[in-house]
Design goal:
Blueprint: H1 3-16, H2 23-36, H3 41-55, E1 86-97, E2 104-112, E3 115-122, E4 135-146, E5 149-154, E6 159-163, E7 182-194, E8 201-209, E9 212-219, E10 232-243, E11 246-250, E12 255-259, E13 269-279, E14 284-288, E15 303-304, E16 308-309, E17 314-324, E18 329-334, H4 336-343, H5 347-356, H6 361-372, E19 376-384, E20 387-395, H7 400-413
Helix pairs in contact: 1-2, 2-3, 5-6
């Protein structure tokens, strides 16, 4: 876009209507919309035309002298907007979040009966602050694509006005399998809670319904609480993010309602048959932080990265390793009950060894490694972030017929 040429053209159009506007002022508005807010040049020109027309009480000027009416003046449903659109919507602010940058005045989620969308109000837009739970008409906002997700941008050419809506906004939930990047509502059961990988993380784990499973995370913020494992929740307006082809839910924006019911979770299950070829450090008996809601694995000095030294730790069992099926090596994680079943070493027995053997916890690791390394097993579980979370496994017995077939196939190949 040639900013100076476009500014001169806009200035001439207003001059023909008897209004003189400095082209430098127009050029500054164009540059801000295009360079700072990422607005398409044609839409930036249209926005500046309409903003100036409103300022000088003139009819809509359109863009390019075509006489075309202002883009985005027609009210659209949120579900129908797409990146690149110049839109007007009406909706309820269902969530507000902490802005990620000083350049952002306000961010959150706005929704109508068709769905929700994330919005960002730039600080330079000088838009009025919106209140959670109130309805607004937002005119001439730009829809762009941020990390594969449609997002509504409120800039200096956008009009934001509170409006009255007496109707109840009742979002509809979708099966997990039908979620897509953006904003979504589901009814699901908390299947697993994982060890937090970041001190800012309040909770992460796995949600499931009749159609599949999805990872979730809740970041530490005032008023945020953990979800209870094995409990069912209806979750409205969660952020659905995508990374490396996998979806996950950020529940910090969501309205979460517990239910006194149950869900039979299915889908996402995987069974892998192969040999355990590696037992990773951190396997065997471990110590966990006893602080409620933490459960992090402690160092050998009983140190928690969040709560520091914890002398009243809790013992636990786990095995991290690799399972090779002959075609692919799977990263596996076995929790206490599966470890006890597979190794034959209970938690009480492991504690006795750790506290009375000269090698301590290392002796437990060595005994478990000797019991299962190189053994053929079948693991059942769910693969999340390239790791198989095992909920059951069985040892495989030697099959002489299968062994002979493998030898014969090897001989014929040579």
């Amino acid at each position: 876009m040639d900013f100076s040429e476009t500014a001169e053209r806009i200035s001439r159009k207003f001059s023909q209507k008897g209004t003189e506007i400095d082209p430098k002022k127009i050029e500054g508005k164009l540059r801000r919309l295009v360079n700072e807010f990422g607005v398409q040049p044609s839409e930036a020109e249209r926005s500046v035309n309409n903003e100036l027309a409103k300022e000088f009480n003139l009819p809509s000027m359109g863009s390019g002298g075509s006489g075309k009416s202002s883009g985005g003046s027609e009210l659209k449903k949120i579900a129908d907007v797409t990146p690149g659109d110049w839109v007007t919507i009406e909706g309820k602010v269902v969530s507000l979040s902490t802005p990620a940058s000083p350049a952002i005045a306000q961010s959150g989620i706005i929704a109508d009966e068709s769905g929700g969308i994330r919005f960002v109000a730039w600080a330079k837009s000088n838009a009025p602050a919106m209140t959670k739970g109130s309805y607004y008409r937002i005119e001439s906002a730009v829809v762009d694509d941020f990390k594969g997700v449609a997002s509504l941008k409120i800039h200096s050419g956008t009009s934001v006005k509170e409006c009255v809506n007496d109707g109840a906004l009742i979002p509809s939930t979708v099966p997990i399998i039908n979620l897509h990047p953006g904003v979504g509502s589901i009814r699901a059961k908390v299947i697993q809670e994982w060890e937090s990988s970041h001190e800012r993380m309040l909770q992460s784990g796995l949600l499931g319904d009749e159609t599949g499973t999805i990872k979730f995370v809740i970041w530490r913020e005032p008023g945020k609480e953990k979800l209870a494992v094995d409990s069912v929740y209806t979750i409205f307006y969660a952020q659905v993010d995508e990374f490396n082809g996998r979806l996950s839910l950020n529940l910090n924006t969501a309205e979460i309602m517990p239910e006194d019911s149950d869900i039979l979770v299915s889908g996402g299950s995987l069974s892998v048959r192969g040999a355990i070829v590696h037992i990773a450090p951190g396997s065997g008996i471990i110590k966990r932080c006893p602080v409620e809601g933490c459960n992090r694995a402690l160092s050998r000095q009983n140190y928690c990265p969040v709560h520091e030294i914890q002398p009243k730790f809790i013992y636990d069992l786990r095995i991290k390793g690799w399972l090779d099926d002959g075609m692919k090596t799977h990263n596996i994680l076995l929790q206490r009950d599966v470890v006890e079943s597979l190794t034959g070493i209970t938690l009480d027995a492991a504690k006795e060894i750790a506290e009375n053997n000269p090698l301590g916890m290392d002796e437990v690791f060595l005994r478990m490694r000797d019991a299962i390394l190189g053994r053929y097993i079948t693991c059942h579980g769910r693969e999340i972030d390239s790791r198989l979370l095992v909920n059951a496994c069985e040892r495989l017995t030697f099959d002489s017929g299968e062994h002979a077939a493998l030898l014969n196939r090897s001989g014929s190949a040579s």
